[in-house]
Amino acid sequence: MKDTNKPILAICYDFDRTLSPDDMQAQGYIQSLKMDVDAFWKESNALASDNDMDQNLAYMYLMVEKTKGKFYVTKEKLMEYGRSLKLFNGVEGWFKRINEYGKEKGVQVEHYIISSGLKEIIEGTVIANEFKKIYASCYYYGDSGEVLWPAQAINYTNKTQFLFRIEKGILNINDQKVNDYVAHSELRVPFRNIVYIGDSATDIPCMKLVNSHGGHSIGVFNPETQDKSKVYTMMEQNRIKYFTEAIYSKDSDLEKLLKNIIDMTVVTEVLEKRHFECNVEAGEYKNHPMDYRKDVLINNLEDSMNFLNICAVIDELKEIKDFNETQNLKILNTAIQNKQIKSIINEKHVKEFYCKILDNVDPENNVSKEVKKLFTDKLESCL
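Given the sequence above, the corresponding structure tokens read:
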């Protein structure tokens, strides 16, 4: 499912108060309804509470309901509000710098939005084209272009589904293959290579999921207010690994942190590749059950620490007709290295087994000579 040989690092962002210092609806849209921002959210939350309604569906409904007699809500109209959104310092140049650093290190960096805000407003921003995919709440529009119904409402818990889509590379929101099994080695972006950047409790499910699977979650706070209370709480509850100011400019602390993560990704992927190769080799070995059984028994003999265990393992080894040269020599070495075997090698049961092994090894081999020296008297088969 991967389309590149390079490791992919997916950076996922919330939008409001993560890339922008305020809620997107409060940066022109609510004001155009001739409403106070706090009054709008109070009414929206009450609507949700009184009707067992999802809070995101409530604000989406109210955004349309309050425009009656004022203007029609269309995708183009919402995108207009996106064009005037304020972004945190450095956001516009952030993506190019991070992408270039990733490229220098051999890492393909991709950016995603996972937001409860409105997709149409985000698509109107100057940074919309920087994202491989924007997952956010959105509307369904009729032939006239006017809003008819919510098409997607994304709340803090169902945000997590999009992390699984990114992980598997199944980005279409209606593609049910996201539920199919994919071997860990075939995941397009394993969770260890996912970064989630957010600011508040609505991001906690995504942060927790990324954290628990070896990824990187980052809490950001407004550099103007310097209010760290939320990130302190998230840190204390192990929701995030790091926190820093929402400053995206060159050489900012956040940029240095992302560069560190990219550097770590390079090393981690080298080790993961090695781990995968070892797993494959070990798996292929286990597919040859007879060789596997022989080696297991020989290793058990090597580790046996008492007479009963040694005799039990030898009884099983006697049932096997042939060993390869390496296995024969390893069996002989057990007599030299294992003090327990050495102490009982002249027991008839043990001696007969080792003489049988010696018959299949070059008598001039140093290991053979060492084992023969352990015998107090020689059996015919050892001559």
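The mean pLDDT is 92. Try to locate this feature in the token string yourself.
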